Amino acid sequence: MMKKNRLLGDRLVIGVAYVFIGLFALICLYPLILTLSVSFSSEQAIARNGYSIFPLSPSVDTYKYIFVNSGMKILKSYGVTIFVTVVGTAGALLITSMIAFSLSIKKLRYRNTLAFICNFTIIFSAGLIPWYIVSVNYYGLKNSILALILPSIFSVWNMFLLRTYFASVSPALYEAAEIDGANYFTIYVKVALPLSKTALLTVGLMYALQYWNDWWHALIFVNDRDLFPLQYYLYNILSNVNAISSGRIPSGASGNITLPAETVKMAITVITIGPIIFLFPYIQKYFVHGIMTGAVKE
Amino acid sequence: MNPVGKGFLYEIKKNRILYLMCVPALIILIMFSYIPFAGVWMAFTDFNVVDGIFGSKFVGLDNFKYFFSANSMGWKVTYNTLYINFFSLILGIIIPVSIAIFINEIRHKAYKKIAQSMMFFPYFISWVVVGAILYGIFSTDVGVANQILKFFGADPISWYSEPKYWKWIIILSSVWKWSGYSSIIYMAAMANFDASLYEAAKVDGASKLQQILHLTVPMLKPTIIVLSLLSIGRIFYGDFGMIYGIVGNNPVLVDEVTVIDTYVYQSMRTLGFSYSTAIGLFQSLMGLILITAANQSAKKINDGEGLF
């Protein structure tokens, strides 16, 4: 009788596990499907029936409409985002991995001092305004593509993650290379980097995602429409919609703004997510692997 | 062995390649973190552009006093920041830990894999996209939430003009976005648990629930504590991108969801640089105190290993 109860209890726990995980997974993906299906619905059907998880009278008219009307603007934004992502990620990986490698070499005497210089910026910062004034008045980052790249090109967190990987490489390998006459830069390029591919990929993906999804640097630094990254382009469309749907913006002001149709908003959202939709199941695998190995200490 | 010969310059020269490799990162830190420290002086002045940062009139702590005076939003935004962060933190532990524990019980590999991919999706999208999705759920005429209300015969709600719901919409969005990602860290910790403990428990007749409550949860405790401490250390910081991405420039909702970070940005335009700098400094100081305390506690719990 006891045993029977226990088995029943175990089954219940397992059942709850299946239901909980299934439900949460659905909640996570549901909005994506909603967005996709609205973007492929016809505008009239959405106005009549509201948002729906199945495309209502399916059509690609919205996408055609967008590319005819604002195709150039979107392409430009795509260009800005891709440029920023590619250049930013490449630069960030180079800068981050070089210092991470150096700080992983135990015989470097000032490595703790340097690590502290990095750490301190996590613990204490001057705040938004001094940072903004210095960036605009002294570095001239207003309306510059560098404003979208430079401020986030080095993340101390990612550096420490990479350093953990580099530190796990056996020092004997480095010593052997040193005896063969290699200097530390050669060792970094030829030994350390190839041995840390998983870590570099994980950190590279983190940087790439950060650049792809970044819009607040654009909010702060960029007025020039030609420099709008994708996410900021979408933000501009949506923030007008939100403000007007609150009903408190004076009608005179809202009269000048034409609200994009529901399907247009969702189609632009899909375009903004872009390659991530197709890539995320593959990228996700590397992420899980990379974070798992990074989080587990030997 | 002359100690001078082994001094600073000698070390730099000997390992010059390694030190050179640190230079680009250090330049970025100096440019964007250290040089701005000088600007903190603005918090104690009445800044005007003509006289510059160091020529403007010194006013002592006036800007800080104003922040906490009755006619400023100081208390309100501090409350909002702490409220949103506190509940995000609690749910941000419970849900990822539950995910990790439950996913461990699932035997069907495909189910596990697909569910995990789906849960990871929110991590990949920007807050602006989250904002667009929330619009699809909460917009008055076509949104899904009102369709559901109508289905049950309730009156539709005009969500975007009702500030009282938005703290929780933001909290739940944040939990939704990070849970799949955070659960991986707990799963990594669980992968390291000693399997023989579970075998022994099974032999002793422990049920699944007992194994979870008396083995898994206690062994996860150190990880949970360290991650919570880290969040507590950042409890005075709001997520600027999250708040602005979700709420945008909606004037009605702003009052309820303005956190310190967004308040600094708004004040910059209306109340001036000095005042905004003072708020930023207040935030950094509170953060410094909390994060140092959190680090000390983490060291105690985690065998001398701190958060950083």
Automatic annotation (TrEMBL), chain A:
<feature type="domain" description="ABC transmembrane type-1">
    <location>
        <begin position="78"/>
        <end position="272"/>
    </location>
</feature>
<feature type="transmembrane region" description="Helical">
    <location>
        <begin position="145"/>
        <end position="166"/>
    </location>
</feature>
<keyword id="KW-1133">Transmembrane helix</keyword>
<dbReference type="InterPro" id="IPR035906">
    <property type="entry name" value="MetI-like_sf"/>
</dbReference>
<feature type="transmembrane region" description="Helical">
    <location>
        <begin position="78"/>
        <end position="101"/>
    </location>
</feature>
<dbReference type="GO" id="GO:0005886">
    <property type="term" value="C:plasma membrane"/>
</dbReference>
<keyword id="KW-0812">Transmembrane</keyword>
<feature type="transmembrane region" description="Helical">
    <location>
        <begin position="12"/>
        <end position="33"/>
    </location>
</feature>
<keyword id="KW-0813">Transport</keyword>
<dbReference type="GO" id="GO:0055085">
    <property type="term" value="P:transmembrane transport"/>
</dbReference>
<dbReference type="InterPro" id="IPR000515">
    <property type="entry name" value="MetI-like"/>
</dbReference>
<feature type="transmembrane region" description="Helical">
    <location>
        <begin position="187"/>
        <end position="209"/>
    </location>
</feature>
<protein>
    <submittedName>
        <fullName>Sugar ABC transporter permease</fullName>
    </submittedName>
</protein>
<feature type="transmembrane region" description="Helical">
    <location>
        <begin position="264"/>
        <end position="283"/>
    </location>
</feature>
<keyword id="KW-1003">Cell membrane</keyword>
<keyword id="KW-0472">Membrane</keyword>
<feature type="transmembrane region" description="Helical">
    <location>
        <begin position="113"/>
        <end position="133"/>
    </location>
</feature>
UniProtKB/TrEMBL annotation, chain B:
<keyword id="KW-0472">Membrane</keyword>
<feature type="transmembrane region" description="Helical">
    <location>
        <begin position="17"/>
        <end position="44"/>
    </location>
</feature>
<feature type="transmembrane region" description="Helical">
    <location>
        <begin position="212"/>
        <end position="237"/>
    </location>
</feature>
<keyword id="KW-0812">Transmembrane</keyword>
<feature type="transmembrane region" description="Helical">
    <location>
        <begin position="273"/>
        <end position="294"/>
    </location>
</feature>
<keyword id="KW-1133">Transmembrane helix</keyword>
<feature type="transmembrane region" description="Helical">
    <location>
        <begin position="165"/>
        <end position="191"/>
    </location>
</feature>
<dbReference type="InterPro" id="IPR035906">
    <property type="entry name" value="MetI-like_sf"/>
</dbReference>
<protein>
    <submittedName>
        <fullName>Sugar ABC transporter permease</fullName>
    </submittedName>
</protein>
<dbReference type="InterPro" id="IPR051393">
    <property type="entry name" value="ABC_transporter_permease"/>
</dbReference>
<dbReference type="GO" id="GO:0055085">
    <property type="term" value="P:transmembrane transport"/>
</dbReference>
<dbReference type="Pfam" id="PF00528">
    <property type="entry name" value="BPD_transp_1"/>
</dbReference>
<comment type="similarity">
    <text>Belongs to the binding-protein-dependent transport system permease family.</text>
</comment>
<dbReference type="GO" id="GO:0005886">
    <property type="term" value="C:plasma membrane"/>
</dbReference>
<feature type="domain" description="ABC transmembrane type-1">
    <location>
        <begin position="78"/>
        <end position="294"/>
    </location>
</feature>
<feature type="transmembrane region" description="Helical">
    <location>
        <begin position="82"/>
        <end position="103"/>
    </location>
</feature>
<feature type="transmembrane region" description="Helical">
    <location>
        <begin position="124"/>
        <end position="145"/>
    </location>
</feature>
<keyword id="KW-0813">Transport</keyword>
<dbReference type="InterPro" id="IPR000515">
    <property type="entry name" value="MetI-like"/>
</dbReference>
<keyword id="KW-1003">Cell membrane</keyword>
